[in-house]
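[scheduler] slot 2 assigned
[scheduler] job type: sequence-to-structure, two independent chains
[scheduler] chain ordering preserved from manifest
[runner] begin chain α
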Amino acid sequence: MTDLLFLPLLNKLKILYLLPWPFHRSTLKIPKPETPVATVLDINGLSKRYGSIQALDALTLQVEEGSIYGLLGPNGSGKTTTLGMVLDVIRPSSGSFSWFGTSVSKTSKQRIGALLETPNFYPYLTAKRNLQLAAQIKGADPASINSVLDLVGLGTRSNTAFKGFSLGMKQRLAIGAAMLNDPEVLVLDEPTNGLDPQGIAEVRDLILRIASQGKTIVLASHLLDEVEKVCTHMAVLQSGKLKASGSVGDILSANEQLLISAPEQQPVLDLLERLPYVVQFRPDKEGIVLTLSEGYNSQDINRDMFAQGIVLSQLIVRRKSLEAQFMEIIKN
């Protein structure tokens, strides 16, 4: 009976014995089962050539449901061309794409709202009347107009003529028109182009509010600040070629460094030698600078230091700005 009581403990000791030194909880990350995320837009080898100009060169990427996906790049990088092709406005030279797992069709188009050009409304008609006309063209339910106006922050200006709107208000009304069918996906081409800081902030806030409703948003922009503050994922394009893609967090954390310090430096250095996920480290005048393997962060270092009785007096994440990362990506 006594032996049976000690069996669980003996099993645990066997496991510990088989583990390489040092044994840390952070090195035993058990992956949690993940719920598969549906792919909304799947682009495979998409290309477009205009005579001798290769506007887009074999672009491949996937946009997942619920993400805010930014196409980032300078003017002429292929962003608008990409959006035009996936919206079936521009014919691809080669490659393919699919929406919701099927080829583009009338049904799939009804699940997408888009704004590709400058807002185009009747200047002397009110915001509400303009949306009524847009609803008739789209075959949308006119009962949704008031809620759309509230969503874009124009509910109190519904009876104001379009010509009296600021550029930011005009852009928000255009986004409202794209939302009339309550689409699952919203596609925006340079949504803050030409706006003043207040207009940019208003449109940015609107995009985040729409995304919070579970919508997927694909937007093209050459503004680094816009992508960094709004997007969850991004692709960097240059001269029609894909230079980098992934989550904004992953791209920003590439080559991320930590700066740590403690009252006594030697115990810290000794432990860093043994931690398997520490790629490299070096003493610095401000402390110790280190780089971690992918998938590890400052929490792992802090926890393992504390487990060995080391209390860090400083732990700073040194992260490159998106601008620095973008320039590095473009140079490479």
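[runner] end chain α
[runner] begin chain β
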Amino acid sequence: MKIDLTDTTSSKINTGLIQARRAIGTPAVGMVLTLVIVTDEGSAYDALKAATEASKEHPSRILVVIKRPGRSPRDRALARLDAEVLVGSEAGTGETVVLRLHGELANHAESVVLPLLLPDAPVVVWWPEDGPENPAADPLGRLGQRRITDAAAAEDPVATLGQRAETYSPGDTDLAWTRITGWRSMLAAALDQKHSAISAAVVEGEAYNPSTELLALWLADRLGVPVERKVSTGPGITAARLVTEDGVICLDRPDGSLAELAMPGQPDRHVALKRRETSELIAEELRRLDPDDVYRSTVRFGISHLVGHSGADESVEPARAAKKATPSGGPDSAGTSSSDGAAADGAASEGSAADGSAPAKKAAGARKAAPGKATSR
């Protein structure tokens, strides 16, 4: 069921939601959280489609905030709220309200969203495209327990990761981090089978890909060994290699779908490691509402290394150069569940690796920032 409301108010929208639920015969509210999507007209359709798919796992009230401040002084001086209320099959398993804020009202979106939040339910705020410099300080971001951005959608994704490190607050996360959950789980599970000291690592992936950078920084932070970052043609991350005293552990995914895991003394095996849709990434992030300390440690570890750099081969030096990693200090001790409860199947439990927060050192020459958008993993 769809209800169009023009030049309306938050109170009328709430009334419309109640009437729509009664009309389809579901007067009770069964949503578990409120998902606020802050986007523009160009990205609203894809973002809403992904959120609707994710709502099948997490029934939610989805509020899509589209700001339209206007171009002329007259348009900017006006204030009008238009809304679309979707309930039933058109809204997945929850409710959807598309809010279009015109004129001056676009600068006060939180005043419109606040009355529409589900009472006593968590709030997650998601920016599919360009997120604010400091999500926790944003007026809408302050309403959420979790704040989701996507560095891959930024003009300079690697510099954006540096900005996320500077402004990190508990509850912040990024879809560039969510995309490497499978890689972290596979590598942790491999080290759980191979008890050998690790001396170095190599991560290969597309240039200007923030997920590739985060995987390299996670390994450097958790293992305490030099990690070389190599550029490949993609798609996304293509390989990760761990150099051990018994040989090289290699997780190779050249096609973005099926990966091959090679370990010393064991036959090669194929593992599913496909590039996931946005709806799957959002569903994973909605499984947990507590702060992601592993993400915090990783993104802060590389701040001096990442800001203003992207694209060339280089090494990520560990904060603890003298440390030689063993399985008890391997990536499995990072707690492979970034935001997921299920992706860590077969991965080791958290171990004794110390959290490293010292800045990474540049081992190769400075490289210029990318002018265009990154290709997401």
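[runner] end chain β
[qc] chain β: Residues 305-312, 319-330, 332-377 have pLDDT under 50 and may be disordered.
[scheduler] slot 2 released
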